Structure formats: structure tokens, C-alpha cells
């Protein structure tokens, strides 16, 4: 796929009525979703709102990808679509304005009823046989839905292949710095898409490994220890010993939960000091 005039030539295009303003800056994040349904055309029409005769006035996306790999573009990439809701990634909030939203047709979690059947988010029942026929599923817990394990229908390879093509084209054309799930950016803690059956790592890998796109980070804890190795058992690097909230860092390497960083000095220069910090207390600086 290639991108021309913020569209993918050769795939179906119809413009959703549920879009924000034309944006000045290119998108920097790709947000991946599932539709919470099996019917791709119905989801596409819903997300197009009045443009497809649907009552929906509140949500949209840029592209919907059906289970057979068919892609429908419903917003040009230079318009804001409404898919992320209240959201945060690194230092950016309200990700609709900075992102491309891709919806994969998939029903999401189904609850086992203990008798061999499963119930989806709408209360519709499916037999195990029906789920297998529809492409299979995997069981996994999701505390956001409830206790126990849920059935997550798999994503067919044709659908994933189209998604990979699309994301590759987007990464090649726009200064994309992150590929994220809706679940990880949702600040209300409700969202579960695209879920454990989605090959998220395959998509994140499209940003490239030896990539210089890993953004600078910023310290989010009040005081963060800078250590000589990747673990709390390592001595602090003194000076400075601790880094203050808001200190910008360059990330040079990651190991497990730890990051090897070079903090910037207050005058904005990268300091000569390097050390390890716990990565839970730093966040990427996202400039859009
Ligand atoms: Zn979503």
C-alpha cells in the first residue's frame, strides 16, 4: 500500500460524517482497535454516521479492516477521527488529534457460561463449535471485564496481513513514534481492545528495532533513583543520585523493567552522566 493525499489509492473510500477539523501536523501515533462485532460492513456504516445513514454521531476511525482482509477507509489521515476517547500516551493527552485509528472486525471477549457456550458483550450466545467455525479463539483473563477467563476470537491471517500492509505504509509516510492498543491508552480503564488474541508485537515491530524513533523520555516520579545497573540492588550514581520530576532523558537501552538513560542537564544539554532507572517512572515525551 502507499499513501497519496492522505488516502490509500485502490481501496474503498467513503468519508465518515463524524470527523474533527483538518489537522496541521501529521499523525504520530497509530491506535489499534476491535469493532466489538462480526459484521464489517455494519461497523463501517456505523462509524460513518450520517454519511451512511447511521444514527451514530459520536465515533469514527480512519480505516476498518474486515475479517477477509478487505479494508475500507472512512477518513483521510489528515482529519481527526473519534476513536481514542479519553486517552494518554507519554506526555500526550486526547490522542484523537494526534493519531490514526484502525478498527479490526472482531467481537472481543465472550463469557463462558460453564455449559460449553459463550455469551458476547451484547448477550448473544455462541456454541464452542460456532466459535471454532468462525476461526477459533483463545482463553485469557481480563480484569476489566470480570474474574475468570474469557474467550477471544482469533484474527484471521488475511485480516492481519492487510493491517500490517497498512501500518507499514503509515510508518513509512508519517513520523509515527508509537503503535498502541486502545486498552493501553484509555484513561478510564474500560477498554479491552484489540485484546490478547491480537498480535500486537508483530505490529509494534513495524516501527523497526534499530530505530532512532524511540522518543525522549521524562521523569514522572517526584524523585527517581539513578542506579549503576538494571535493578534496585545497584548503588545510586552520585552525583546526581536522584533525578527530579520533569527531567528529560535519552533512552539508550532497555532491559526488562529498566532503562539505561542519559539525563539532560537543566540547560538542555545531554549530560555526561548515565545510569539505570526503573522504566515505570518515566514516560515518552511525545511532540506532535
Ligand atoms: Zn477501541
TrEMBL record:
GO molecular function, one term: N-acetylmuramoyl-L-alanine amidase activity
Enzyme Commission no: 3.5.1.28
Example GO biological process: cell wall organization
SUPFAM superfamilies: N-acetylmuramoyl-L-alanine amidase-like
Enzyme class at the top of the EC tree: hydrolase
InterPro entries: Amidase/PGRP_sf, Amidase_domain, NAMLAA_amidase_2, SH3-like_bac-type
Family annotation (Pfam families): Amidase_2 (PF01510), SH3_3 (PF08239)
Catalysed transformations (reactions): Hydrolyzes the link between N-acetylmuramoyl residues and L-amino acid residues in certain cell-wall glycopeptides
Protein name: N-acetylmuramoyl-L-alanine amidase
Origin organism lineage: Bacteria, Pseudomonadati, Pseudomonadota, Alphaproteobacteria, Hyphomicrobiales
Amino acid at each position: 500500500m502507499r499513501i497519496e493525499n492522505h488516502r490509500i489509492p485502490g481501496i474503498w473510500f467513503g468519508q465518515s460524517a463524524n470527523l474533527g477539523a483538518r489537522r496541521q501536523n501529521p499523525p504520530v501515533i497509530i491506535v489499534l482497535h476491535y469493532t466489538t462485532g462480526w459484521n464489517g460492513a455494519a461497523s463501517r456504516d456505523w462509524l460513518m454516521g450520517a454519511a451512511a445513514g447511521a444514527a451514530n454521531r459520536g465515533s469514527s476511525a480512519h480505516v476498518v479492516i474486515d475479517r477477509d482482509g478487505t479494508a475500507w477507509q472512512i477518513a483521510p489521515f489528515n482529519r481527526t477521527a473519534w476513536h481514542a476517547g479519553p486517552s494518554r500516551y507519554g506526555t500526550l493527552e486526547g490522542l484523537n488529534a494526534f493519531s490514526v485509528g484502525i478498527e479490526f472486525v472482531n467481537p472481543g471477549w465472550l463469557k463462558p457460561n460453564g455449559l460449553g457456550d459463550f455469551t458476547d458483550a451484547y448477550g448473544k450466545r455462541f456454541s464452542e463449535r460456532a466459535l471454532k467455525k468462525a476461526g477459533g479463539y483463545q482463553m485469557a483473563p481480563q480484569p476489566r471485564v470480570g474474574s475468570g477467563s474469557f474467550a477471544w476470537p482469533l484474527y484471521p491471517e488475511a485480516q492481519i496481513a492487510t493491517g500490517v500492509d497498512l501500518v507499514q505504509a503509515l510508518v513509512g509516510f508519517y513520523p509515527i513514534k508509537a503503535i498502541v492498543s486502545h486498552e493501553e491508552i484509555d484513561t478510564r480503564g474500560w477498554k479491552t481492545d484489540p485484546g490478547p488474541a491480537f498480535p500486537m508485537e508483530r505490529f509494534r515491530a513495524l516501527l523497526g528495532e534499530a530505530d532512532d524513533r524511540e522518543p525522549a523520555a521524562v521523569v514522572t516520579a517526584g524523585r527517581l533513583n539513578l542506579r549503576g545497573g538494571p535493578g534496585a540492588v545497584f548503588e545510586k550514581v552520585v552525583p546526581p543520585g536522584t533525578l527530579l520530576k520533569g527531567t528529560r532523558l535519552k533512552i539508550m537501552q532497555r532491559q526488562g523493567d529498566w532503562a539505561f538513560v542519559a539525563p539532560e542537564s537543566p540547560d538542555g544539554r545531554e549530560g555526561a552522566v548515565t545510569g539505570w532507572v526503573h522504566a515505570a517512572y518515566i514516560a515518552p515525551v511525545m511532540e506532535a
